[in-house]
Amino acid sequence: MRYVYGITSALLAGGTALALVTQSPVGAQVAQNEQSEMARVVPRAGAPDSFADLVEQLQPAVVNISTKQEVTLGVRLNPFAGTREPITQEQQGGGSGFLISSDGYIVTNNHVISGGPRGEAVNEVTVTLTNQREYKAKIVGRDVASDLALLKIDATGLPFVKFAQGSPARVGDWVVAIGNPLGLGSTVTAGIISAVQRNIGQGGAYDRYIQTDTAINRGNSGGPLFDLQGNVVGINNMLISPVGANIGVNFAIPAEAAIPVIEALRAGERPQRGYLGIGIVPVTEDIAAALGLPKDRGEFVQRVEPGEAGEKAGLKRGDVVLKVNGRDVTPQQTLSYIVANTKPGTRIPLEIVRDGRTMTLNAVVGTRPPEEQLAGDNFDPEEEQTMPEDPSGAADETIQNSLGMAVQPLTPAIARAVGIDPDSKGLVIAAVAGSSDAGRKGLRRGDAILSANRTPVTSAEALAKVITDAKKAGRDAVLLEILRRGGPSAFIAIRLK
Questions:
Q1: 43 forms bridges with which residues in the sheet?
Q2: Which residues of 360-380 are buried (b: 16+ CB within 10 A; e: fewer)?
Q3: pLDDT digits over 124-138, tens only?
Q4: Which of 148, 240, 241, 286 has the fewest CB atoms nearer than 10 Å to its CB?
Q5: Tens of pLDDT along 369-382?
Q6: Residue 352 vs residues 282, 293, 297, 302: alpha-carbon distances, Å
Q7: How far apart are CA 265 and CA 143, in angstroms?
Q8: How many CB atoms lie within 10 A of CB 270?
Q9: pLDDT, mean over the chain
Q10: What phi and psi, each to the nearest 5 degrees, are found at residue 47?
């Protein structure tokens, strides 16, 4: 690298001599790579002579994370006992992480310590330091939206590193990644920052990454990306590759985005994000043509949730939101990103277009619900129903084993999706086994359960209790009150298995 810079300097010197002969007009702009400017900004030695001293200092704070989880693959019938037994398999995984305190707090990616069909936390997490000492780790907290997690090991006097403060990352800066790729153990790679605030089209509050050409592969997830001062500027998170391995297009969660999430998890709190409660789509070329608006500016409101901040501000279906709090809404700066990164309770102006007229509404930003709740609200009754292979709790297991169905809470959004009154309270059927009595009697995904044995049920635990009480009383069935689109509720007795 020094040789390349040496040649560049020689060429630039020649260029300067030519410039002196030709004498540029007074006041004319000079090229970005004009010699006097380059002499000021180009590092005299080019790349660092070595990263060895930096790595020697930082490497002890980077850890290897390995995980184990029992996953249920299916259920088999024991013909001798007449019982159903789960078929399980132990799955292993892992990645990287780094210590942020001397008493054992460790940052990593949520996906490193998640598994199973619904991204549950793994059963066992083991942390290995560079000195090969192993510790069992406790999951302090995890956040699906940011893909961050915080672990804790029982130890003191440990080496640790600090996050960079502010937004120090600049395109072209040298960075060093330390992690555990491909099961090889602690590995160091270096490169530069290729882009900052990179939007890769995932949407939401955290679709802004540091892009780097530093070699990152499977197993680097959760590991730190350091600047040359030894500060953590990013947390390695993902790569884009047509071959499944590094091609120099890699992404890290910026430190400034990670810090508030980690602080909340450490305090035992859920990270707070802004929320308007609206469904939106980009203003495509076709939508823009239909409304007489410029394309790629603003977002079109498809849905407004009752009682949420958007409705309270006066937003309506068909509005186009052009600006949020004075910031233009564009494909690079989406409405979701701006709002999610606004503190709940903040009053913000919304510039919108309605029926060809521009107007301003004022909204008080609400609090974004948990991701699992939002995922549940996107309920499609026509989606192919599949029974969960691994019930997520004792209540779900009781319902699945006794009634042959899976349920989830009935929210107003789900009620609208299945075509019933949004004020309905109860459960919604997510799946029904065809061989069950419920399946034979025509119950299906999207049916709402309002009560069981005349007792209102709004949680899996409530329904499981009715089932348990019925069995204790020697009853072979429960009476479910079912509500389906287009008709009144009906009582259907379902045999218990």
A1: none
A2: ebebebbebbeeeebebbebe
A3: 999 999 999 999 999
A4: 286
A5: 876 666 656 677 77
A6: 14, 12, 11, 14
A7: 8
A8: 15
A9: 83
A10: -70, 155
Closest CA to 209 of 155, 147, 252: 252
Give the residue carrying structure tokens 């929320």. Answer: 275
Told to judge if 221 belongs to the known catalytic residues of this protein, a careful annotator would answer yes
Give the integer Cα–Cα distance in Å for 160 and 130: 12
In sign, the C-alpha dihedral spanning 18, 20, 23, 24 is: positive
Q: Exactly one of 66, 96, 143, 147 is catalytic; which is it?
A: 147
C-alpha to C-alpha distances, 4 to 11, 47, 67, 224, 411, nearest whole angstrom? 11, 11, 45, 30, 63
Phi-psi region of 204 (alpha: psi -120 to 50; beta: other; left: phi over 0): left
Residues 6 or more apart from 20 whose CB is under 8 A from it?
none
What is the residue type of 213?
A: D
> For strand 366-367 and strand 347-354, is the pairing parallel, antiparallel, or unpaired?
unpaired
Residue ranges of domains in the chain, CATH in brackets: 2-47 (no CATH), 48-271 (2.40.10.120), 274-367 (2.30.42.10), 379-495 (2.30.42.10)
Catalytic entry in 66, 111, 194, 451: 111
CA distance 243 to 337: 30
423 is catalytic: no
Residue found by looking up tokens 């083991």 in the block: 126
Torsion sign over Cα 418, 424, 427, 432: negative
pLDDT of residue 32: 43
Q: If DSSP codes are grouped into helix, strand and coil, which group holds residue 123?
A: coil
Residue type, 86: P
111 is catalytic: yes
pLDDT score at 471: 93
Catalytic residue among 96, 114, 186, 221: 221
Let me know: does 495 contact 477? Beta carbons within 8 Å.
yes
Longest CA pairwise span in the chain (Å): 105
Which tens digit of pLDDT belongs to each residue from 194-215?
A: 999 888 877 667 788 999 999 9
CA distance 135 to 126: 6
